[in-house]
Task: inverse folding
């Protein structure tokens, strides 16, 4: 099990979780957007943010952008581009070639090496899609990624042909999959499809859209899931 040095409420270990933002966000904007989550998890876990290595060059068409109308226009970042020519991304793109994934995997590996150890990894939207790929690599024995669990919010399977390798075997990493019934950016069906690649995934739905929910109903799932990894 990944190490944890801090202590939370009642002397139990405080989990450390590496958090990967969505497309068109960065570590600062994701830190701001997860304020309620961080506050509610303060006695159980701390989130460590990093920015994706790929700088998005131009403002997108808001209607087709993964982040919808509420986007981060200052230093927008992404984990890979589904359209290499335009340096852009869409979760529904069915492409043969993508760019940037290897750079992002190296960035996450660097975070594990320099900022870790981490007990878990959390991803939102494109970040959640990346988390699933990292879980697949961990299962193959990739020594760069040592963690115990994954939380995937509004995740999806990449449609890129070269990413098929990540979904060929069931993933046994303990996982919590969160998605909104009214999410128009990443519909719940896409998150369910991703969850089907995991063994015994825990599914948590909410009535909202494209965000990380932190209401009483979600806390009843978050807390037991995280507590199962605390010592």
Result:
């Amino acid at each position: 099990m990944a190490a944890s040095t801090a202590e939370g409420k009642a002397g139990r270990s405080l989990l450390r979780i590496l958090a990967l933002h969505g497309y068109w966000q960065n570590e600062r904007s994701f830190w701001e957007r997860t304020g309620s989550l961080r506050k509610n998890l303060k006695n159980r876990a701390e989130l460590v943010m990093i920015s994706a290595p790929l700088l998005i060059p131009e403002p997108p068409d808001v209607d087709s952008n993964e982040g919808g109308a509420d986007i981060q226009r200052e230093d927008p970042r992404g984990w890979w581009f589904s359209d290499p020519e335009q340096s852009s991304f869409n979760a529904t793109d069915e492409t043969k070639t993508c760019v940037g994934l290897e750079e992002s995997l190296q960035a996450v590996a660097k975070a594990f090496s320099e900022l870790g150890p981490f007990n878990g990894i959390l991803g939102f939207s494109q970040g959640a899609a990346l988390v699933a790929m990292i879980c697949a690599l961990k299962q193959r024995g990739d020594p760069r990624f040592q963690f115990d669990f994954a939380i995937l919010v509004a995740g999806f399977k990449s449609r890129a042909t070269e990413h098929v390798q990540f979904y060929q075997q069931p993933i046994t990493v303990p996982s919590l999959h969160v998605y909104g019934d009214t999410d128009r950016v990443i519909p719940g069906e896409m998150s369910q499809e991703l969850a089907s690649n995991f063994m015994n995934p825990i599914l948590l739905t909410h009535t909202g859209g494209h965000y990380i929910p932190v209401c009483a109903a979600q806390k009843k799932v978050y807390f037991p899931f995280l507590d199962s990894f605390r010592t």
